[in-house]
Amino acid sequence: MSRRFETVLVANRGEIACRVMRTARRLGYRTVAVYSDADAAAPHVRQADLAVRLGPGPASESYLNVAAVLDAAARAGADAVHPGYGFLSERADFAAAVEAAGLVFIGPPAEAIRAMGDKAGAKRRMLAAGVPCAPGYLGDEQDEGRLAAEAEALGVPLLVKAVAGGGGRGMRLVRRADELATALAGARREAESAFGDGRLMLERLIAGARHVEVQVFADAHGHAVHLGERDCTAQRRRQKVVEEAPSPIVGPEMRATMGRDAVAAALAVGYRGAGTVEFVVDAGGRHFFLEMNTRLQVEHPVTEAITGLDLVEWQLRIAAGEPLPLTQDQIRFDGHAVEARLYTEDPYAGWTPQTGRVLHWRPEDAGLRVDHGLAEGGEVPPYYDAMVAKFVAHGRDRTDALRRLRRALADAPLLGLRSNAGFLRALLAHPDFVAARLTTTRLDEWAEHGEPLLQRPCPPEAAWALAAALLATGAGWRPAGLATSELTLAHDGERRTLRAPPPGLQVLEWAADGRVRWQADGLQRHALARRDGATLHLALDGEVFVFSEPMAGARDVAEDASRACAPVAGVVAQVLVAPGDRVETGQRLACVEAMKMEMWLQAGAAGVVRAVHAAAKDPVAAGALLVELELDS
């Protein structure tokens, strides 16, 4: 059945919106972007043929507003909607509303989304289709006594999961029997808050597991194929960090078996379009159905790299009613691909999200595929996910791909705000990753036990010296009249006084694009440097360091216990105190939410609240003063 359309509205933002529009334009479709006030100047807005404002910055008032998205489609004359991933992409009511409005939804039928969105119901369907599932309880009886009895029969460790859950929310790990009651209460409370559905299921934990998923496609003519597997075992807090294809633990026979089960899963729910069937694989190589993502995945580029196919093109063709472009026997795999997700977060400070202005970003310097939605001079806002780009390396084999990816992360640094790029390079070189010994919980275990990989790198002596030279010699950098013989620099709380410029070091060139060529000890080397006020952002040997020249007599606000300031730009989620309240050391004062993460401000010392400068739902800048205390003497 043909379903013609000419104009595609992409109901998303950032790198996935840019990526979808790139293929749509190549195929001759007009493209429509939607945007919030925070994204008015974003690259995906400039890339589209038309752009329509949805609303204010928070996603609940813009990208998650179904009525606003449908109104934007009508105003722009769009006759198809691509949801990307995240936001509304797995909302059955959105898919149904798009079709009810007479538009083509570039995704699966609402019934398939609904079927796979109910995790207990989905597992029952999988069992009926012969797809292996981990033992568990999927019943409708939800009283505490029944859940406790089923948990006792399953044994520990086990997982308590929200039936309507996703993204790790509504999930609790139970390692001992006496933890069950607390886990049930916590999971139910979180599930009701996040999904409006407090139903729970139980599942035996597959210890020491790897996460392997299979890309599937189905058309409207009853055909379905798989495009091989991806290994997404490198995760933290159940969020993927690095993905690769093929999996280093999967051979031809296992690939055929998992592919067959994934196709059976898609056919069992009348699927259409792109989908991903996720499995956990135990130490013995047995796979168990985890869930199905009814959309395009973040990590789809690694499948594109090893198959030579454009998965968005397949989505568009299938949505238009065309049959699958290839049969299973015609699909070929070539080489190995690895994707690393670039997050604007600080892995050395509890993965704290980072927001602010992009000073330097030249992804073309990476020498490989980089999907992104950033631009120099643009802002990373606090309202959305912290993932801003994906580096994708394709090589002859896994060793080749990993080497290319590590080099690319060093060659295309993001300057202006902290990111996880240095952590990614270290992870890709870690012996456990190289030897494919990771499990889905290994990164969290490392964080708990102080793995050196998660210790902030210290600037080498060369970085201090080069920073001093650049700050001393940069045109217009130092105020006139200040001596250049000594320079005090600060980096993450450490201060040093250096000669500027340092002896034996010469800056040969500092170009307008930030490239630095310098010489020391008879060697010429390269770096990248951007300045922002009194701060220098320096990328050297794959690491980024931020140096500042403190003002004489400046007060260190970070160590002032009388001031509770926003750690990052975000939105105030809660304020728990009022003027006149007495507080004790460590007491929670207020909470700032940014990029789906809550950060609590605590009293640094005992005292009385002198003033409160923000209320719930107020947007705040990084460093904004929220609560002032009169400290006990």
UniProtKB/TrEMBL annotation:
<keyword id="KW-0547">Nucleotide-binding</keyword>
<dbReference type="GO" id="GO:0016874">
    <property type="term" value="F:ligase activity"/>
</dbReference>
<dbReference type="InterPro" id="IPR000089">
    <property type="entry name" value="Biotin_lipoyl"/>
</dbReference>
<protein>
    <submittedName>
        <fullName>Carbamoyl-phosphate synthase L chain, ATP-binding</fullName>
    </submittedName>
</protein>
<dbReference type="Pfam" id="PF00364">
    <property type="entry name" value="Biotin_lipoyl"/>
</dbReference>
<dbReference type="InterPro" id="IPR011764">
    <property type="entry name" value="Biotin_carboxylation_dom"/>
</dbReference>
<dbReference type="Pfam" id="PF02785">
    <property type="entry name" value="Biotin_carb_C"/>
</dbReference>
<keyword id="KW-0092">Biotin</keyword>
<dbReference type="InterPro" id="IPR001882">
    <property type="entry name" value="Biotin_BS"/>
</dbReference>
<keyword id="KW-0067">ATP-binding</keyword>
<feature type="domain" description="Lipoyl-binding">
    <location>
        <begin position="555"/>
        <end position="630"/>
    </location>
</feature>
<dbReference type="InterPro" id="IPR005481">
    <property type="entry name" value="BC-like_N"/>
</dbReference>
<feature type="domain" description="Biotin carboxylation">
    <location>
        <begin position="4"/>
        <end position="448"/>
    </location>
</feature>
<dbReference type="GO" id="GO:0046872">
    <property type="term" value="F:metal ion binding"/>
</dbReference>
<dbReference type="InterPro" id="IPR011053">
    <property type="entry name" value="Single_hybrid_motif"/>
</dbReference>
<dbReference type="InterPro" id="IPR005479">
    <property type="entry name" value="CPAse_ATP-bd"/>
</dbReference>
<dbReference type="GO" id="GO:0005524">
    <property type="term" value="F:ATP binding"/>
</dbReference>
<dbReference type="InterPro" id="IPR005482">
    <property type="entry name" value="Biotin_COase_C"/>
</dbReference>
<dbReference type="InterPro" id="IPR050856">
    <property type="entry name" value="Biotin_carboxylase_complex"/>
</dbReference>
<keyword id="KW-0436">Ligase</keyword>
<dbReference type="InterPro" id="IPR016185">
    <property type="entry name" value="PreATP-grasp_dom_sf"/>
</dbReference>
<feature type="domain" description="ATP-grasp">
    <location>
        <begin position="123"/>
        <end position="320"/>
    </location>
</feature>
<dbReference type="Pfam" id="PF00289">
    <property type="entry name" value="Biotin_carb_N"/>
</dbReference>
<dbReference type="InterPro" id="IPR011761">
    <property type="entry name" value="ATP-grasp"/>
</dbReference>
<dbReference type="InterPro" id="IPR011054">
    <property type="entry name" value="Rudment_hybrid_motif"/>
</dbReference>
<dbReference type="Pfam" id="PF02786">
    <property type="entry name" value="CPSase_L_D2"/>
</dbReference>
